[in-house]
Design goal:
alpha/beta; Rossmann fold; Arc Repressor Mutant, subunit A; five-stranded antiparallel beta sheet; 8 helices
Length: 222
């Protein structure tokens, strides 16, 4: 999953980014509201962690403009203030949840999981399931019928994207945006290499799941 952190306290923003990356999220970081808004407009993120007090454009303004542009990405507001008015204002503007600084890392991760959870998709907070094929986040493995195989980080992230969008053709452009970022210069053959690795690993498990190619379009899990 791809997350956007918008936080002007550089030390905190960088610490959050590192924590999220260690938990196998793809993360982009912005240090002001204007850059955060521009990044969020791309619509490639699964969740936005947005501070209220930001230079250039405050978090409430960013949120209001995003909702006006029909960007429905879940937003978790961060604020150093504890006044109930800030929380009410944020929720009324379109935030999905809020967290008051300072906060515990475990609570932040739990709230992100809750905001990005898809109904019927999550076996538990560490696993995704597709017709019995299991993707385990904590061990970075894919499991079928009691057997498992280890995935690299990029393999895991691509597999997570495919399982989260079953039977949908994912264009190569979207895969690059989600896994490497929309400003990345990664080429299509990089994706093809990782897809080849994943196919071999699925075959080694004899799993009745295939990554199919839609020629000239992208890939789907069937």
């Amino acid at each position: 999953m791809r997350l956007l952190v918008v936080e002007d306290e550089i030390q905190l923003a960088d610490a959050l980014t590192e924590i999220l990356k260690r938990n196998r999220y793809n993360v982009d970081t912005c240090y002001n509201g204007i850059d955060g808004y521009d990044n969020a407009l791309t619509g490639v993120y699964d969740c936005i962690i947005l501070d209220i007090m930001l230079p250039g454009m405050n978090g409430i303004e960013v949120l209001s403009k995003l909702r006006h542009e029909k960007i429905s990405t879940p937003v978790l507001l961060l604020t150093a203030k504890s006044e109930i008015e800030d929380k009410i204002n944020g929720l009324d503007t379109g935030a999905d949840d809020y967290l008051t600084k300072p906060f515990i890392t475990g609570e932040l991760l739990a709230r992100i999981r809750a905001l990005t959870r898809r109904k019927g998709e999550l076996v538990d907070e560490n696993k995704l399931d597709y017709n019995g094929l299991e993707l385990n986040k904590s061990t970075c493995t894919v499991i079928w019928n009691g057997s498992d195989v280890k995935l690299s980080l990029k393999e895991y992230q691509i597999m997570e994207l495919l399982i989260s969008n079953p039977h949908q053709i994912l264009p190569k452009e979207r895969i690059i945006e989600k896994i490497w970022g929309y400003e990345s210069d990664v080429e299509y053959n990089n994706i093809e290499v990782y897809i080849s690795f994943l196919r071999k690993k699925l075959a080694s498990l004899s799993a009745p799941v295939q990554i199919k190619t839609a020629r000239g379009m992208g890939y789907s899990l069937e």
